Structures are given as structure tokens and as C-alpha cells.
Amino acid sequence: MTEDSNNPTPQRRPLALDDILLPNAFAYEEGTVDFAVLFGNSRPVELEIGSGKGTFLVHRAKARPEVNFLGIEWANQYCRLAADRMARWGLGNVRMLRADAAAFVQKRIADNSLQRVHIYFPDPWPKTRHRKRRIIQPPFVELIYRKLCIGGQLAVVTDHRDYARQMAWVIFGQRGFATVPFPRTHGAGAGEVVGTNFERKYIAQGRRFFSLAVMKWR
Length: 218
Ligand SMILES: C[S@@+](CC[C@H](N)C(=O)[O-])C[C@H]1O[C@@H](n2cnc3c(N)ncnc32)[C@H](O)[C@@H]1O
Fold this sequence. Notes:
This protein is of the alpha/beta class. It is 33% helix and 20% strand.
């Protein structure tokens, strides 16, 4: 009797770290990424920017094996930790890259190629003189708009009221986006929006969250 007929639940087969974690140099290669080559199939691709320890991606990639996921995280130790978690879960539909997401998306992601972009609890840079460091700025949102396919979505969550206002102003200001209900997220537990590490920490502090999702309709 085969293993599959014995047990209909897919087996968890750990992968090597290198199966998940892309080399840093991948960010600087010439040309746009061929996702079909990267993942070995032509399934839709979702991008998470600032994956942190990878909690959201682990849950979503487990729940959506028919989708490919690319996580970009700037902090080397978090990126490796996240990739290690994906490898231990045997999540062959995920790749992690240590890179600056804005530069990577601009240089390496083809236009109209992403199904969804997730940006959860991006650094709020609360001091006025640091606000220009926030990732959600008009040129960045215009870039994300170009990289999404028609029907593709951008989903953002923050706990920071001022950043939430900026996000709404910038995202609603991008032509071609229409507001949609925030997508249901499989990993999120009771009372959670997306179930990331920061969200769990902030729930314990009683903070309120602001979430927004838009779809590229033209
Ligand atoms: C506040 S943490 C949130 C992490 C995770 N999304 C969560 O909710 O638990 C923001 C993360 O974004 C990463 N980050 C900040 N700027 C980035 C950039 N330009 N490209 C990729 N990652 C970035 C940081 O290293 C950090 O891990």
C-alpha cells in the first residue's frame, strides 16, 4: 500500500535551507525574475514585503499550496529564521530573499506579474524627520500597482494611526485601484487580522489595527 492511500493528509517533508533561501546576489542579477523557473511551475505569485520571522507566510503557504510565495526581508537574521521555518515545514511553494524590497521590486519584478502584495506592520518611523523612510510613499505604491496583474491586490495593515492615514491617502490616490474587502487570512487566530508576530505582540498591548486592501482593476 502506498503512503498516500494509507494517509490522505500530506506528509511534512523538511527541505534544505537552500531550497527556500535565495542567495543575496539573486537581488542584483540582470533582468526580471522568471517565476516559472524560480518555482518550477506557473502558479500565481504573492509577495510579502517585510516578512519578519515569517509567521504569516508559514500559515498562508501551508493553506494555499496552489500559490507561490516570495518573502522579502531586509534583516538577515529574520530572513534566515523565516526561511528555516519554511524549510522545516517543507513549504516548497515559498522562497525567501534578503533584500531591500523597493529596489528589488523595481529592478527584478516584471510588470503585471504579481497576484497579491502583502505589507503588514511596516516600520512606522514615527519621528517627523524620519517619515520619508516609510515604505508606503506615492512612487512605491505606483511601482506596486505596475507589478500587480489586473485583478491583483495590495493588502496593508498597521497599528500606527498616522501611518494609516498616510497609507490611505497614498493608496487611494493611485489611479486604477479600487477598494475591496480585506482578504480573509488563514493563519489569523481569533481577533487577529493577519496573524503576524508584530500583530500578536500588539494585541497583547491592546492596540488597534488599521487594514486596507485594494484591487488593480485597470
Ligand atoms: C515592524 S516589522 C514587521 C514584521 C512582520 N511583517 C510582522 O508583522 O511581524 C517590519 C519588517 O520589515 C522589514 N523591512 C523594513 N524595510 C524593509 C525593506 N525595505 N525591504 C524589506 N524588508 C524591510 C524589517 O526588517 C522588519 O522585519
